[in-house]
Write a structure and sequence with these properties.
The chain has one helix spanning about 145-150; strands at about 1-10, 15-25, 30-35, 40-45, 45-60, 65, 70-75, 80-85, 85-95, 100, 105-110, 115-140, 160-165, 170, 175-180, 185, 190-195, 200-205, 210-215. By secondary structure, it is mainly β.
Length: about 230
Amino acid sequence: MNLRLSDGHVAAGRYRTITARGHTVIDPGVVFDTLVVAGVVTMAGCRGGTVECKAGRMVCTGDMDVRSIGGYGEIHVSGRLSCQTLRFVGVVRADGDLVCAGDVTVDGILSNDRIISATSVTLRGVLESTDVRTDTLSVEPLHSMMLTRHAMGEYTASSRARTVVGNAVRVHALTCVTLHADAVELSERCRIERLCNASHVAGDGTADVSLFCPTCSQTHLKRRRA
């Protein structure tokens, strides 16, 4: 069944496509193939296939378990966020683990209070996380005249993480306690307390690394799977 609505609620059941405009409340027990968010959507939990955000705002007070997330706007998840792919422009916040079986690509802000785990993480903007576990991590600045014009400083702030575990890591303006990686590129005044297991380190000469650990065990930091 397909459902289109503006200002209302979606009752429990199975849906092919839900197109939500205005302010929409999705009841527990809803499963969808596609959810199009073109307004403000709130829910206690989210289960389904594809989430397409079109300048919308999605608030999930529980866990979100979907196949893919795409579009632009804001997504706030109070619990765990699980998906296969995530490609988004705007803000993605998850209070629980963010576990992606494939790739994460975000232009804007990627914020997480626990663990971000993905095959690759590509971010143009700001990263905020406790632990990041990925094969490839790239954090670059988000360049836009709009950010300066409207004083949107949160999109140009420094990134931070307690621990990063990866293979190839290329980061900009990152403050990190422990970074485990084979190939590392640091730019724009990165601050790293411990750099471990790196066989190749490059940068622009502005990074501050307090301690190099050439042989540091990371067996307890394996990447979680979705």
